[in-house]
Design goal:
alpha/beta; Cobalt-precorrin-4 Transmethylase, domain 1; Rossmann fold; 3 domains; 4-stranded parallel sheet; 10 helices; disordered N terminus
């Protein structure tokens, strides 16, 4: 993890004399991703072959690397063929319904911050709250939370959905996907607060690392000509990061790797900002920087 923004200078052949590259200090893997990958590495060395219920993290390049070491990605438990069956629970968690299978050993890499949200949901369910989850309903983390919340729950993705929500429940609780934007959470909370609930409680469960990444990236985006966001296209936190930056700098580009970098993103630009999602490996940053420098020649 970089402790401060780094500025790098170069010379582009398009006439720009000095080009600065500013890299967010909150780039590279977050704590939860590092932890998940460390657990997976140790398990693969010990077991040889492990099945993962969906990708361990949302970065195709990293997942491909682990697949080459024996990690097999599955969508359903029936895909497990080995007699010695070990199932890895990804960093974003899993629905309890998916774990109701005997004769399988589980290796849990769920991020502790996601586990915390799961515990909150479980407690709210036991207390009889209608649980409203802010986030992407297609995301594995949100699916897992819905599985824990049960039927007495719903998912809201934006302010419009919150405005149209019509509930008869007397008491409700609002929580968030850990990788949602703080702005979305606050907007939805504002709309939900207008509803006629006898009791409404809210928990800001957006991960602090997510908030820090978004704030610093947005700050950099305001100062540069072009903002490059590196991370998987299937990564919720990376997509939200790109969305946050695009709100302050329309020249924001979400790329997965150096292969997606185009000269038109950089032409006539004097200042370039770089930020990454929480599941983007540090080497991806270096590759993008090197590719930018390659354009210098």
């Amino acid at each position: 993890m970089r402790k401060s923004c780094k500025k790098r200078k170069g010379k582009f052949s398009n006439g720009v004399n000095k080009t600065k590259i500013i890299i967010s200090s909150n780039s590279g893997f977050c704590f939860g991703v590092k932890r998940a990958l460390d657990i997976a590495r140790r398990a693969l060395r010990k077991r040889g072959t492990i099945y993962s219920f969906g990708p361990i993290i949302h970065n195709p390049q990293v997942v491909d690397g682990f697949s080459g070491k024996g990690l097999k990605i599955i969508k359903a438990l029936k895909e497990i063929k080995s007699k010695k069956r070990y199932l890895l629970i990804p960093s974003h968690g899993i629905s309890p319904d998916a774990l109701r299978k005997k004769n399988i050993s589980y290796i849990d890499t769920t991020c502790p911050f996601v586990s915390r949200v799961q515990k909150i949901v479980k407690d709210l369910r036991e207390k009889g709250y209608f649980i409203i989850i802010v986030g992407d309903r297609k995301h594995p983390e949100v699916k897992g939370l819905v599985g824990m919340a049960g039927r007495n729950s719903c998912v809201l993705e934006d302010k419009k959905e919150a405005k149209n929500l019509n509930l008869k429940s007397k008491k409700a609780a609002l929580i968030s996907q850990t990788t949602a934007t703080l702005a979305d959470f606050k907007e939805i909370l504002s709309e939900i607060g207008k509803k006629n609930f006898m009791e409404l409680v809210s928990f800001n469960t957006v991960c602090k690392n997510t908030i820090d990444r978004q704030r610093e990236a947005a700050s950099i985006a305001e100062k540069v000509d072009t903002m490059i966001i590196i991370g998987g296209k299937n990564s919720a936190n990376t997509s939200k990061l790109a969305k946050t930056c695009k709100m302050v700098n329309r020249n924001t580009h979400h790329i997965e790797s150096r292969r997606d970098l185009k000269i038109k993103f950089l032409k006539d630009k004097k200042n370039i900002g770089i930020a990454t999602g929480a599941s983007t490996p540090p080497y991806a940053i270096d590759e993008v920087v090197n590719e930018i420098r390659r354009f210098d020649n």
